[in-house]
Amino acid sequence: MSQPSFDFDDEPHDDPSNPTYTVGELAEAINDQMRRGFSDGVWVRGEIDGLRHSGPHTYFALVEDGDSGRAVLNVSLFAPMKRNLTPILKRNRLELTNGMKVRIFGHLDFYAPTGRLGLKMAGIDPRFTLGELSQARDQVVRTLVASGLFDANRRHRLAPAPLRIGVVTSVGTAAWHDFHNELERSGYGFELAVCDTRVQGEWAVGMVAASIRTLGRRSDLDCVVVIRGGGARNELATFDAEPIALAIATCPIPVLTGLGHEVDRSVADEVAHTALKTPTACAGHLIDAVYDYLAAIDERWSAIGAVARHEVSVATTALSDRAHRIARRTHAAVERADERLSTRIERIRIAPERRLVAAERAVVVDHDRLVRRAPGLLTAADRELDLAEARLAVLDPVTLLRRGWSITRDATGRAVRSADELAPGAVLVTQLANGTVTSRVEQPRQEGQP
To answer: What is the pLDDT of residue 142?
Structure first.
């Protein structure tokens, strides 16, 4: 490359072979060269950074981090072209955001007032962005499958009546109000533990993952719900991020998602216990679970009542049958008892008469026998009486006293039968036939003593 000589002679300043440009002229020359070199425009890929809106226009930098440092290209999207590109972005459910990888078409422009090279954006390749999102998503899914965590959260059992709910969302948004109002209208006693979290933007991934982990550590929750409203596909790519997917997969309680999109499923949906399309649908799912639980309880209670009524009816029928059998048997037993009683009454009525007749006959027989035997018995009795009187007369003490016998008694009136019973000085009364003799013992002496 040749360098111009600087010999400062009186050389004219407007020499056509070595022209001198003004700044404005140089800017125009640069633009002329770029228009000739890139007459049809140029495609550039990179990552959006520093996105800002100024009135109807949008400005951002397209950046790329390489081995030699960071390369930056300023991009301008002016209102007319923005109106043309908006339908394309909406059709593919994309929205320009920081961090979004894009392939855009435009015309290079050197802007003289700032001395900066830029690109006037005129087109965008949505397939490139979607492909980048799909590749990142697929990589996260492969990582989860390889680690065995892809369906880990689905193995947890959702409580039959999930009334205690942890909520990860941006409080104040339409998604939050839809979810909250739906639960309130149900009339059930839901208890919510809410983590107010950014669900889109630069800090969303870390905040959502941290909120899920925080709620998952609580022992008083039945499940965790992650909700947000609908949005562009690249905004929803937040929920394709590996940190959020890991937080859901490793959460010890079921995680439900309601991320507000009708078509696509994020990685968060794939690894969640249950994925619903919208926050309202998520609330409806919880309400249905509680309703089903209460309905099952009512059904079981009704079944218990039916079984109880059937058993009572069966028992009542059995009891009635037994009562009838007992009544019939009682009547029969009473009738038989009446018959036996009547028979016994008749027997009792007849028996005394028979016994009286028999007794009268026995009395007559005994009377006749007594009449016949009485004279002989009386004669024999008189004879025995005379003999007894004679024996008594012989044994009568008076008779013995008359014969010369006597009875000696001591002072107490007791008859003295042995000399051993007497002591010197004892008073004795001796009864004779015609009176008594009182004496005093001087010296008792037994028979055979001198």
So the answer is: 82
